[in-house]
Design goal:
Blueprint: E1 6-11, H1 15-26, E2 30-36, H2 60-78, H3 83-86, E3 88-97, E4 114-116, E5 128-138, H4 140-153, E6 157-160, E7 175-178, H5 184-187, E8 194-203, E9 210-213, E10 219-225, E11 230-235, E12 237-238, H6 247-258, E13 271-281, E14 286-292, E15 297-303, H7 309-330
Parallel strand pairs: 1-2, 1-7, 2-6, 3-9, 7-15
Antiparallel strand pairs: 3-5, 4-5, 8-11, 8-12, 8-13, 9-10, 10-11, 14-15
The structure holds flavin-adenine dinucleotide (FAD) and 6-azanyl-2-oxidanylidene-hexanoic acid.
Domain FAD dependent oxidoreductase: 7-318
GO cellular component, one term: cytoplasm
Family: Belongs to the DAMOX/DASOX family.
């Protein structure tokens, strides 16, 4: 532990916490520790498909910028390391519609390669669609393992521990980053974050383009080819906490992807497994500073990424660094002796005590 560097504790070891940790460590200015109840492969992040595509997350203008910054980071820092190391591949994606789409997605101006699909690219049964030429997909478990390895190689350390009171980490650090995902509901009493249950099926490899039937944002039909296998999806069941795969959902996902193309009919697929994750959904991604204990402590919130955690992860990590720098300059020097450590814990924080004023 370098005493000249500021200590930071990140709560959460999903793609959001790990990306933030890597960016903070790369500056050389911080000692960074992750505290997390669940570690990969037992996080929501490990249940993701995953591909670059903004989905179920707001506000769309910021999601656009974060997505573009994440795409740039992947192109410069991750894709060049090679697929064997990171489990990440550049992959074109088609978003398909059976009805015309007058509106372009609000995030599209941020993504240079975004365009409407050409007639000659259209699949049978679809009349409209969009494409991004240089998106990416990752074998999620392999990518998450690479993120952990990168974080540790930069000097980060990971403690598997549940944080029951948000003030506990402040005994050890003046700056805490809240990357707790859906856990923010309990950790800081934010009832605005809720689960959107997603179920996927892992199958043997399929074709070389990610295909997503977006006609219905609740009954999803997508095929995402990855490095060692492909993922079929999916579901978007709000406020559903069931973590067990449902046979009914599997049947309905298979029916939906078969309608994308005959090559995805069940007889042509070899099912390898099913996964379920609870997307940390919120009306708006919360990425902001909160000063605690009369301005002596800084809590940076970075949670509520819905269906886009991987797609915005590096953009949000870069903004987390900006918030840390901005907030740290405003911290009143905390002379540890005048804040007895037990005083931080002797009052349980009521859920109503948090203010969720978003910027
Ligand atoms: C089926 C499915 C498919 C998806 N596909 C994609 C996709 O293709 N592209 C994409 O961009 N996104 C996708 N997503 C969304 C993406 O998975 C999430 O947005 C992302 O994983 C959120 O990351 P996170 O780090 O915030 O949360 P998590 O991965 O849930 O990590 C939260 C961490 O905080 C810890 N934690 C919580 N509370 C506490 C506490 N009190 N004390 C200590 N630790 C705590 C947890 O243990 C965990 O380590 C998908 C999601 C699902 C379910
Ligand atoms: N629009 C389809 C989204 C693909 C996968 C994904 O982001 C999800 O299921 O959350």
């Amino acid at each position: 532990m370098n005493i000249h560097k500021k200590d930071i504790i990140i709560i959460g070891c999903g793609c959001i916490g790990l990306s933030a940790g890597v960016i903070l460590l790369k500056t050389g200015d911080y000692n960074v520790k992750i505290w997390a109840k669940d570690l990969p492969p037992n996080t929501t992040s490990n249940k993701a498909a995953a591909l670059w595509y903004p989905f179920l997350s707001e506000p769309l203008d910021k999601v656009g910028r974060w997505s573009q910054e994440t795409m740039d980071y992947f192109k410069k820092e991750i894709i060049p390391l090679g697929v064997e190391k990171t489990g990440t591949l550049t992959k074109k994606v088609y978003e398909l519609y059976r009805t015309p789409r007058a509106q372009l997605p609000e995030w599209s101006p941020f993504v240079p390669s975004f365009r409407r699909m050409k007639k000659e690219e259209m699949l049978d049964g679809y009349i409209d669609g969009f494409t991004v030429e240089d998106g990416f997909v990752m074998d999620t478990d392999q990518y998450m393992d690479w993120l952990v390895e990168s974080f540790k190689a930069l000097g980060g350390s990971i403690d598997q521990r549940e944080v029951v009171d948000i003030r506990e980490p402040f005994i050890y650090a003046d700056i805490v980053i809240n990357c707790s995902g859906l856990g923010a509901r309990e950790l800081i009493g934010d009832r605005l974050v809720y689960p959107s249950r997603g179920q996927i099926i892992v199958v043997d490899n399929t074709r070389d383009i990610s295909l997503m039937d977006e006609e219905d944002e609740y009954q999803l039909g997508y095929v995402i080819p990855r490095v060692h296998n492909s993922v079929l999806g999916g579901t978007n069941q709000q406020h559903n906490y069931n973590l067990e795969p449902s046979k009914k959902d599997t049947e309905e996902i298979l029916d939906r992807v078969a309608k994308i193309s005959p090559q995805f009919e069940r007889k042509n697929l070899k099912i390898l497994g099913e996964k379920v994750g609870l997307r940390p959904s919120r009306y708006s991604i919360r990425l902001e500073n909160e000063f605690m204990q009369d301005g002596r402590k800084l809590l940076v919130h970075n949670y509520g990424h819905g269906g886009s955690g991987f797609t915005v992860s590096w953009g949000c990590a870069l903004d987390t660094l900006k918030l840390v720098r901005k907030g740290a300059d405003k911290l009143k020097t905390s002379n540890k002796s005048d804040v007895p450590w037990y005083s931080l814990l002797n009052k349980r924080r009521s859920s109503s005590s948090c203010s969720f004023v978003n910027d």
